[in-house]
Amino acid sequence: xxxxxFDQSPLRRTFKSKVxxxxxxxxxxxxxxxxxxxxxxxxxxxxxxxxxxxxxxxxHSFIITREDGSRTYGFVxxxxxxxxxxxxxxxxxxxxxxxxxxxxxxxxxxxxxxxxSLASSTDEGDATSLAKLQRYNSYDISRDTLYVSKCICxxxxxxxxxxxxxxxxxxxxxxxxxxxxxLPLESYIHxxxxxxxxxxxxxxxxxxxxxxxxxxxxxxxxxLPLSDYPLREVFELLGLENLVQVFTCVxxxxxxxxxxx
Length: 261
What we know:
It is built from 8 helices and 6 strands. By secondary structure, it is of the alpha+beta class.
């Protein structure tokens, strides 16, 4: 388990993650920092879900800034895949049994009752809270399907967010589709790593992903730096008044700290 969140139910806890594979193994000008990439891809750690939970893929980005000030950008698609290991499923059920036993004990302690009297308790509150525990804090290996989070990440020298997002979504569709793509997955990965060049300054580049073409654009020398992040999301997350306040602080050259989960 990653972190001290044992008070949470097992499906709400986070677990230690690790890098399963990366390609290429190393690049001289951009050495692969396994610990940093692991932490930035899954900042909350590995998480589990069941068929009753929302498992829509999520995309986020990160920046690695080195001592010399150079930056590389990471774009991560997190999705959930079914757990096929019976050992892990059994371990999850055991964790739930232990967790529920502790919860029942705390309910009993708060109402000063024994397990025998709890079943016949006339206190509606205790009966209701216990029923909720049984309904929501449970995992049945014979009834529920267990899923675990997984990431695919693309690390780039420039923040081509929209192009990276489209490529990762297409790659994810190819991985999960019943119908395999026209070429092996390795072909598309090799293509974007070795055959798709950076567009020249002031030019656009169109290349083919797995299913559809993708376009990325690079500003010219006299233009503003590349900012491929949608402003609409900033307004949705911060709100108009907060954004105006942040912008005012920027103009006044104040120190700004944004804190987020």
